[in-house]
Automatic annotation (TrEMBL):
One of its GO terms (cellular component) is cytosol. This is Glutamyl/glutaminyl-tRNA synthetase class Ib catalytic domain-containing protein. One of its GO terms (biological process) is glutamyl-tRNA aminoacylation. InterPro entries: Glu/Gln-tRNA-synth_Ib_cat-dom, GluQ/Sye, Rossmann-like_a/b/a_fold.
């Protein structure tokens, strides 16, 4: 899966994969997950990863609840459609 911020780049990625003779993967673009300030969670900003949260003892329900109702619906939709 990829964040929906990469939707516009998908075409050029597919073209490059074709030129290089690579198999094109299936892409699913999910809604971005935002923190309480509205900033997206990303490696670039060194946001805590879901894996780290799991290691710290957070349950999947705890993690989902951290993102609020707006993102909860998106996460549930993502889970349902995978």
């Amino acid at each position: 899966t990829r964040g929906e911020d990469l939707v516009e780049s998908t075409h050029i990625h597919r073209v490059l994969q074709s030129i290089l003779g690579l198999k094109t993967p299936f892409y699913f673009h999910h809604p971005l997950i935002l923190d309480s300030n509205g900033a997206r969670l990303s490696k670039r900003t060194r946001a805590q990863t879901v894996r780290a949260m799991k290691t710290l003892g957070y349950s999947p329900k705890d993690v989902i609840n951290l993102f609020g109702k707006k993102n909860l619906l998106s996460l549930l939709s993502l889970i349902k459609n995978t």
